[in-house]
Amino acid sequence: MTTASPGIRDFTSDQLARVARLFAHDADATSATGRTSAERQRHQLTKNPHLEVWLVTWPPGATTDWHDHGAAAGAVVVVRGELIDRLWKGGSEHWRELTDGDEIAIAPRTAHNLTNVGDEVAITIHAYSPGLAEMTPYAWENGQPVAIDTTS
What we know:
It comes from Flexivirga alba. This is Cupin domain-containing protein. Belongs to the cysteine dioxygenase family. Pfam families: CDO_I. The protein is mostly beta strands. It has one domain (13-130): Jelly Rolls (Sandwich), CATH 2.60.120.10. Helices cover 11% and strands 44% of the residues. It has two helices and eleven strands; from the N terminus they run ααβββββββββββ. The protein has a five-stranded antiparallel β-sheet with strand order 1-2-9-4-7, covered by helices on one side. The longest helix is centred in the N-terminal third of the chain and has 12 residues, at 13-24. It is globular, with a radius of gyration of 16 Å.
């Protein structure tokens, strides 16, 4: 007999996207934070050791800078806005244009940079599994992202 708690502990990319879509279609969740700030704002919608969901508002030009989510896989759903996701995959940079309703999956330890390229505030929902225990920042050097050592 096992004493583990019931429920999903490991989410697939499809499951993360479904969770993000559920929150994206919840008017109460998508109005959970202000939209007038000059800086990107994050509002945590739910969290447990296996899943985190965030609402992010992006004023025009707001960016994450290059980073990865450590061991966490992610899914992003665009509620409103125009964003570009720059992704480092297979030794080269890939660009994804995102608008209302678009969704992306982000594999663990994958460097990317998400930026609002529109003229209006963008709103996105992010789901991560497991929770965000670590994030690695990167600098763009010689045509590629290079992890920044934050331990020194």
